[in-house]
Write a structure and sequence with these properties.
Helices cover about 45% and strands about 10% of the residues. It has helices spanning about 15-25, 35-60, 85-95, 105, 120-130, 155, 190-200, 215-235, 240-250, 255-265, 265-275, 285-300; strands at about 5-10, 30, 100, 110-115, 140-145, 165-170, 175-180, 205-210. It is built from twelve helices and eight strands. Helix 1 packs across helix 2. With about 325 residues, the chain is of the alpha/beta class. An eight-stranded mixed sheet has the order 3-2-1-4-5-6-7-8.
Amino acid sequence: MEIKKVTVAGGGVLGSQIAFQAAYCGFDVTIWLRSQGSIGRTQPKLDNLRQVYIDTIEKMSTPEGQTPEVWARGISEFEDFDKASCLDKVEKAYSRIKLELDMGKAVADADLVIESMAENVEDKVAFYKALAPLLPQKTVLVTNSSTLLPSKFAKYTGRADKYLSLHFANSIWKNNTAEIMAQSKTDMQYFDLIMDFAKDIRMIALPVKKEKSGYLLNSMLVPLLFSGLDLFVNGVSDPESIDKAWTMGTGSPKGPFRIIDTVGLTTAYNIVKMYVKIPSFLAPYNFKGMEKLLKKYIDEGKLGMSSGEGFYKYDKK
């Protein structure tokens, strides 16, 4: 089987990035969205990604851009870099992405559907139940879930043998890793197919050999975010100081609150909610405090970089 047509379900931070990267690498890409309002939120993300890719390519063509810190491996290998060719691929990617509200039309001839929706179990189950009768027999289905296991949803997909996880890091054009994880009913030929697809969209494919919530990246990242939030909600310090402690102490480019702003406070809130019911004497963190804090920010419209403000303010261009 060859993957040519890709449908991404969800146009959030990562959904839009996955779609743009796949289109940049020559795939026919459709983004399925729930509503007209979703189109209004997704199109600006695609507009911004077009400019981000252009700016990155321009920087890569300069002497200061030809360093490991700047180079975007999802755009080009260093030895094969051709500025004009890369810029042309950006424009073709931008023009070939389709936005579709009709789920049936969005997946009608899809070889691969990538579910990239919020970390909400009920919403994902409802999506899979609606999707299952619409999918062509050939279609492989993957989830980009950050923390939820594919085995939790396999029975709702109608194709457990063709269902697995494909998880990306944020800023996909630069942090070009993809974690591929099967569940017990996955036919391994589709695991191999998705490993190859990840490489075809210029990702470093990382096999996860055992089903693990959080995969590789988030198994390490989520505890960092919890620790930062815990310090804040318990009044130990403020977001900027907590971030500085991490970035200056480790050399990392972002601290936990900058990271949360990047991935979105709604995503962080949905993850925290999964831990709130843990008895307090077993919980290593103040999850109830985190839930209350994040909900307050979300209710105030402070969703992170996408809205112009989260724990920090951003210039919305």
